[in-house]
Amino acid sequence: MQINVPKWLKKFAEANDEPLYLVGGYVRNALGGLPPSDIDIAGRKMSSDLVLPRGFFAATTYKRMGTALIKCRYMPDVEVEYTPFRTEVYEEGGAHTPIDVSFDADISEDAKRRDFTVNSIYYDIKNDRIIDYFDGIGDINRRIMRAYDPERVFSSDGLRLMRLVRIAAETGFGIDEETARVAKSKAHLLRDITPNRKRDELVKILYADEAYGIEDAHYRGLTLLRDYGFLPYVVPELADLDGLVQPSAYHKYDALEHTFRVVRNAPPEIRLAALFHDIGKAEAVRRTGKMHDHERIGAEMIPDILGEKGLKFPKKEVEKVQRLVRWHMYDKDRQTRRGKMLLFVARNSDITEELSALMTADSAGKGMGEAEPNRIKEFYDQLVQSGAPLGLRDLRVNGADMRELGYEDEQISRKLEELFTACVLDPSLNRHKKLMKMAEKRSE
Questions:
Q1: Residue 90 neighbours by CB under 8 Å, 6+ apart
Q2: Minimum mean pLDDT among 50-54, 99-103, 128-132: which range?
Q3: Predicted pLDDT at 443
């Protein structure tokens, strides 16, 4: 079995007297015929005792865990994480962070702390040999995810439940029956995992098909989260959609399966919004008995789910998802008047392409045949071709001009909005002199 090692990494290994081992995803993917993953290496020495060839340096070091991120100033793309052999002790509850770490372990003990057999294979770089304590190679050949001791693996770190789902999705591997059974029984351990760690794994699942090119990997990852009972501990509002029946005239699937199929059909840049586009449906039914207005209710829920109280996504991303959720039903009957459509698209020009893509994915995810076209992109193209302003920044007048005409405070923003509306409907008006005259006449 051949594992290709970069020349710079061989040089690194040869500079040290103790063997250095490739371990984890890089070895797994090399043996499994998948594209390379990030490079992780391990060895007996502490990172501070490593001999670093010229140009190499430890960029960051996590002393408690002994890990170091090693880079090379001559090769900016080179990055490797080094971890010394260690043993770990965890409190009950699977909270991800060990309460005690020891660095007197040998390689066999280090192997026992790792998550899955396919990630527990060591490759001795200098001596060109493979060390495999738990038949990880056999599991790679069988294309199976397995924990050598599932009880210990998941109880020591609950985040491994999501990692199991994510890696299985990314690689296309199945999941060993006993590993799956124990994982399902440990779903509650995700309660103790910090929101940002769950967020990071969820995002990786949403992009799972991009990791190694496995088709529909992101869809499979989401269905595994559901089938293994993890969703209530990751996003309980999504779990509320499971089994929620939708009108059969418009939908083939329940609300959660529909959501997953929308994500399946969505381009990567809108998958987070796709995952939450119908998040308000269960709450709408609780309030009114119907799903009407679920897009507004869902938009109200987004900050608590994705923001600081929830999964802690960046504020800018939360706001964008909120807008996409709020407007994904706009013009659903294609009956909105032309002028109103033009104004809506102009005011939302920064998310037009994403909103159109979400609407298309939403339609495809209903399972009722081909996706219905939406008019968002059509009207956006009309605006661009007409030269209409796509925001206040495109107006040929600004706040200073309005102040010159005697407007103050809120009057300025109201007047600019009024001029913007006029120019969207008639782009020929967007000239400095014309707008100044319009503002002056209406202010008398």
A1: 97, 98, 99, 155, 156, 157
A2: 99-103
A3: 42
Q: What is the mean pLDDT of residues 157-183?
A: 97
Are residues 187 and 226 both part of a single domain? yes
Q: Which amino acid is at 370?
A: E
- Residue 372 has which token pair? 């219905």
- Taking the C-alpha atoms of residue 266 and residue 272, their distance in angstroms, rounded to an integer, is 9
Task: Examine the domain organization and report whether 22 and 107 are in the same domain.
Answer: yes
Specify if 150 maps to a domain: no
pLDDT of residue 102: 77
Q: How many domains does the chain have?
A: 4
Sign for the pseudo-dihedral over CA of 210, 212, 214, 218: negative
Residue among 11, 10, 3, 59 at smallest CA distance from 36: 3
What are the helix and strand counts (H, E) for the chain? 23, 11
Assign residue 135 the CATH number of its domain.
3.30.460.10
Task: Categorize the per-residue pLDDT at 97 as very low, low, confident or very high, splitting at 50, 70 and 90.
Answer: low
Both 293 and 369 in one domain: the answer is yes
Query: Considering only 89-103, 167-181, 216-230, 401-415, which range has the smallest mean pLDDT?
Result: 89-103
- Claim to verify: residue 6 and residue 78 sit in the same structural domain: yes
| pTM beyond 0.90 | yes
